[in-house]
Specification:
alpha/beta, 454 residues, 12 helices, eight-stranded mixed β-sheet, Ribosomal Protein S5, domain 2, 3 domains, nine-stranded mixed β-sheet, single chain, globular
Length: 454
């Protein structure tokens, strides 16, 4: 019998019987590599078994008391994931090296163990002594069990041997290795198999597992994309200077794009309970090109400062630099201002900055960006107690935004006097366009913004 070769793509994890210079699935060049181990080939093909087991069905209704959420004691983390950890769930955490993933997870273990929950920290990158040194620095002295191992079979056997285990940390999934296949540690097939086994273990024995994932140069979690599909929740760490932003990208048990803000101090990560005050605490007063934007990440409103700078350029192609926002949207806003408001940017360099290291994804930031550009262009200042939100269309119209009542409530709480919004329905507004003392100005086109500045 002739043995057939099998080629595995290290980019997307797909397999093919023929070698090619480019993967037929993800179109990555040089990604196909021959798998010579027969056991690995059998696993990648799905195994061979002719026996079928009849499964028992369950009713969708019932008592879910055993899946009650676990409060971690870190309020920012609990809010971001929807109210606490769900028993039996698997969470994937990614971030740059040294950003604080292991620090946060060790603090989570400490908080949970103080609530009489059984926690196990498994590290494939550090020895138990190294973990103890970091725990001592963070002030963690609770009853947390430690393991330093990379063997998946040994780890699973240890987890099953520990009775009433509630919480497990795997740091990191790329260091786990299974003897079932002959692929090297960190390869696509190893990561897929180890994740699959751990997910089954969590669901079967009702254990919450958090996996730490390495990231690539472009900032995404290393390994095949289906790794994110296999888990219940995906969290990304971002940050600059001493501040860390934990963002929920996927969550089967809560809203996505929720954020949690932390400050890195000597004793670990300290939660910042009010992100709005952090992002606007150092705003410059009476300075052109600086405005306040009210946005929404998931279900949480927040305020942040947007700064713009325009300088004369002597190059054939003036520079456009953006920090914390989409450069393509900036190009669109500049084109709309040039076409609809007769503002020329062809001989000027444009710089845009979202203060605090936050990366905005909300399209309602368009109006705030336009306001900052108009302010610096004409060297005029908007009132420091004014907030902006609204999406801009190519015709210059200001489009409606979601959760406007939620944004207005946050603006009221922080003491701002004016909010400039799209022309859309808002509840509980009096005849003077005010709500609880907050003046609401509705505009339909960018030209109306120019009139407000003048």
């Amino acid at each position: 019998m002739i043995k057939k070769s099998l080629f595995l793509c290290h980019g997307c994890g797909s397999t093919t019987n023929k070698w090619a210079g480019k993967c037929p699935t993800c179109n990555e060049w040089g990604g196909l590599e021959e798998v010579k181990d027969e056991q690995t080939q059998e696993y990648l093909r799905g195994g061979s078994s002719n026996l079928c087991k009849v499964l028992e069905t369950e009713s969708i209704s019932g008592d879910f008391e055993e899946y009650k959420r676990l409060k971690t004691g870190i309020d920012e983390f609990d809010k971001m994931i929807g109210g606490g950890l769900v028993r039996g769930s698997v969470i994937l955490v990614g971030g740059e090296p040294g950003i604080g993933k292991s620090t946060l997870l060790l603090q989570l273990c400490d908080k949970l163990s103080r609530e009489n929950l059984n926690c196990l920290y498994i590290s494939g990158e550090e020895s138990a002594t190294q973990i103890k040194i970091r725990a001592q620095r963070l002030g963690v002295n609770s009853n947390i069990k430690l393991i330093s191992s990379t063997s998946l079979e040994s780890i699973c056997a240890t987890i099953l041997s520990l009775k009433n285990l509630d919480f497990v940390i795997i740091d990191s999934i790329q260091t786990m290795n299974s003897d079932k296949i002959g692929a090297s540690m960190g390869s696509v097939s190893q990561v897929r198999l180890c994740t699959h086994e751990l997910v089954n273990l969590a669901k079967t024995h009702n254990i919450t597992i958090i996996l730490v994932g390495h990231i690539t140069k472009d900032g995404s979690i290393a390994g095949p994309k289906f790794l994110e599909h296999m888990v219940d929740t995906v969290l990304y760490f971002e940050g600059e200077n001493n501040y860390r932003l934990l963002r929920s990208i996927k969550n089967r048990y809560g809203a996505t794009n929720e954020i949690a803000l932390f400050e890195m101090v000597d004793s670990g990560l300290r939660e910042v309970s009010n992100p709005s005050l952090f992002f606007i605490k150092s705003i410059d007063k009476n300075i052109s090109g600086s405005v306040i934007f009210i946005g929404v990440e998931g279900t949480r409103p927040f305020l942040t400062e947007i700064q713009a700078l325009i300088v004369q350029s002597y190059m054939p192609m003036p520079r456009r630099a953006v920090v914390g926002w989409d450069s393509n949207r900036l190009a669109m806003i500049l084109a709309v201002l040039s076409s609809r408001c007769d503002m020329g940017f062809g001989d000027k360099e444009v710089y845009l900055n979202v203060v605090g290291g936050l990366k905005l994804q909300d399209p309602s930031a368009d109006l705030a960006v336009a306001a900052a550009l108009v302010s610096i262009y004409f060297r005029k200042v908007f009132d420091e107690k004014t907030v902006f939100c609204g999406e801009i269309g190519l015709s210059g119209e200001i489009r409606v935004v979601s959760n406007l009542d939620l944004r207005i409530k946050e603006v009221e709480k922080l003491g701002f006097t004016t909010i400039i919004t799209p022309d859309q329905e808002i509840s509980n507004i009096n005849l003077n366009g005010e709500k609880n003392g907050l003046k609401i100005i509705k505009i339909k086109y960018l030209q109306d913004l120019m009139k407000l500045l003048n």
